[in-house]
């Protein structure tokens, strides 16, 4: 009886999970605009958020006119010029970088190193990075690019625990059933942590960004000073295609902290990561043209740009 009940519970839990995935695939976007922040693009293409993406966000907001630059022979200082029409993850980022890491609305790239020199600062920095990830995910969900289901996650977790308990109850009578139930419990608990799915719109946007990344991997833009930024350079940095950026933009964590983030289901966008695409009114208007150019080049050169290298695997 225990084995039969466990099998029925597993089937029901699996049905709950895949029904959530199906609902996500038919959900329409709230907005048709396709504009990205570096944190959004990185998360959507399965990257973990690191100090590289902090740098890319600063450059992106500078290029967008949100940040201003005061440059001297000794250092480069960024300051907030305007805060209108920003997403919640951008607002959180500005408060964090310019008032906690920086000083009174100003930020130098070296501030992150100074902030994380002590263990207390490193712990606070790690916590804020995780919080920022949460804001990015919430923005993504608000745009209907992903769909989360806390109810499904709860049901899968409880079902997994019940399978563990049931397996323990029959361990002496039927060890093979115990192994099967414990395996099912592991699968359900793992699935519970991945109750986030890409919508149909999200899948389309992921493919567009993959094409853009592969375009940049072939036509890598030259390194730019902060006065000569381009969209291509900012996103080459975002996608890990620019390796020497720290010479110009020395933003480093004292311990080179990397926030480990849970994987999303493969159909969601995912390995150990960082994703998101959000609408931003202040983003430069040439982004759409860049994506279109990348797709045109794909057709001209006969290359498959759907599976870029350099992302984590789920």
Question: Please, could you describe this protein's structure?
Answer:
The chain is 54% helix and 6% strand. α1 (2-25) runs antiparallel to α7 and α7 runs antiparallel to α8. The chain is built from twelve helices and five strands. A hairpin with a 4-residue loop joins β1 and β2. The protein is elongated. The protein starts with a helix and ends in a 13-residue tail after the last helix. By secondary structure, it is mainly alpha-helical. The chain has one domain (25-67, 74-149, 198-301). The model is unreliable at 21-33, 257-288 and 301-314 (pLDDT under 50).
Secondary structure layout:
Elements: H1 2-25, H2 38-44, H3 51-63, E1 67-71, E2 76-80, H4 88-101, E3 106-108, H5 111-115, H6 119-142, E4 146-148, H7 150-169, H8 175-192, E5 196-198, H9 200-218, H10 231-238, H11 245-248, H12 287-301
Antiparallel strand pairs: 1-2, 2-3, 4-5
Helix pairs in contact: 1-7, 1-8, 3-10, 4-6, 7-8, 9-12
